[in-house]
Amino acid sequence: MGKTLVEKIWDAHVVKRAEGFPDILYIDTHLIHEVTSPQAFDGLRKRNLPVLRPNQTVATADHNVPTLDQHLPIKEELSRYQVDMLSKNTKEFGIELYGLGHPYQGIVHVIGPELGITLPGKTMVCGDSHTSTHGAFGAIAFGIGTSQVEQVFATQCILQSKPKMMKIEVNGELQKGVGAKDIILYVISKITAAGGTGYFVEFAGSAIRSLSMEGRMTVCNMSIEMGARGGLIAPDDTTYEYIKGREFAPKGEKWEEALAYWKTLYSDDDAVFDAVLAYDAADIQPMITYGTNPGMGIGVSESIPATLAQPESEQLSFQKALDYMGFKDGDAILNKPVDYVFIGSCTNSRIEDLREVAAFVTGKQKAEGVEVWIVPGSKQVEAQAKAEGIDKVFEAAGFQLREPGCSACLGMNEDKIPAGKYCVSTSNRNFEGRQGPNARTMLVSPLTAAAAAVTGKVVDVRELI
Amino acid sequence: MKKFEKLNSTVVPLPIENIDTDQIIPARFLKATTRDGFGENLFRDWRFDSNNEPKADFVMNDPKYKGQILVAGKNFGCGSSREHAAWAIEDYGFNVVISSFFADIFKGNALNNGVLPITVSEEFLEKIFAEVFADAEAKITVDLEAQTVTIDATGDSFEFEINPYKKSCLINGYDDIDFILSHKEEIEKFEEERPFSFYR
Questions:
Q1: ipTM for the complex?
Q2: Distance between CA atoms of A57 and A20, rounded to whole angstroms?
Q3: What is the maximum alpha-carbon separation in chain A?
Q4: Which of residues 362-401 of A touch B (CB under 8 A)?
Q5: Per residue in B30-53, pLDDT tens?
Q6: Fewer CB within 10 A of the terminal residue: chain A, N end or C end?
């Protein structure tokens, strides 16, 4: 019997398998950041253990950093302390840190790929659920808790039971104005925020194949929003072309060796998946969420579903979500007013996202009363945007181009959306209070966000391009 | 990690679905660099209003409901991988969370902190809610060795599943690092025999 792509990579990393125990799985690369690592470093000290493989660990500061005046000391005391702790800990344990001020600093899931650290066939973990992003390269990548961060520090391994396998195919051609973000919001709206729990998802089909690496990262990034442990896409020429020549990518003979192996990384024709779902790309419209979990999404031309149409056990939670959002059963989502637009996060802050937004807003102005924050995913993305003159386009449109970090995606720093305000956001979560206490989030693609920024309301971007 | 064996307690019912880790512990409270004190901010924005006054209509502010067992709607703990959510639950005083469905990462984090997540059928979950809303003093017995959860008053019982390795960790108070480190030679052998030099 053939193997799925996940099984091929998984089996190549099993250090020890025993009946009744989770596998001991070897981890090639461990990414860390300031928020979920300090307690793990403390644990090592208590046990008097070193980091077993510091050269397979990379650190950056992203969750808690300001996105203005990064050259100055961080004003907020607790944030500054946490970022300082990361510097101290990485120094003590011999780990490379791309901290504030470093030209490689950025959101951990943006810098891994852009530096050529993320590679097909790897196992990668990070104390962050959006680690699934790296699956776009055909890697097994997933988020872990802090106890597991400590495990990986101490052993370069993790205890993990092999997940079930799901394949999600999206075939056909996308409509104009519809992109990777719309695909994944559509899929999650179909299978719900819990529909992928227990699974590792392989995304396949012609619509997925036709995406750029950055689009594929957007899709895999949100695998966790359907509960899946991770998502991945088999590597192909698009993948190799993206990786080749990047800072830490294999070079020369090693590149040839790598390429030969990577070409074996696909699910065999007779591989067995525990679940297979298929969607038609042509059915997907620009998507938007109306509730408080990422599964509560609809096409922009659709109306908010009725509470009574939900299963009885879910009606209370559904109504609570609509009340929080200030929406009613059957409301059209089109023309809902927008106060803030946030373009950023590990889902959509890469150079292609910024280019797409800039191309759309060139010659346009932000709508009156709307605040627009553009937060690039990394220093490299920021530098590239400036080199291409994209910063000037944003400035002319009245958009604020800030400095890299997780920012208003989770509102850990000062980038918070005020209570009751509506934010159209390219991030990944619309949970209650996610972007600030009582903030109301609507998740969309960068293009739909750009359209909201210039019109001040939810619009169908297909009519504006 | 402290040992877990048997528990008999009243429960706090939270019949809401898809409770995500941002509700359990909002991101602005993740700036601490130790594991202590998160219980204070457990369900912060549901428990307190913007003036830090307790919200009277939230179940945890109702003195009727207390105990070491939290019972919640399906897909509990979805969202962020923050272990702070498990720390907050443990620190507040819950040793067991019962739901009909848990998000994967949260489940692992809870187990790594001596908090037992018990998955029951939707039917059994409804029975617990019905019992507790009828009588706030209703008690539940959790027996990890026997893998059962029982509503004391009715005798209704549910046999739950748990990975046998994780079960023995909880009962003995062991953690994963001790276990993995006992295989250190195998890890080094794996590294030596690994064919792909381009990953290092």
A1: 0.95
A2: 30
A3: 64
A4: none
A5: 999 999 999 999 999 999 999 999
A6: N
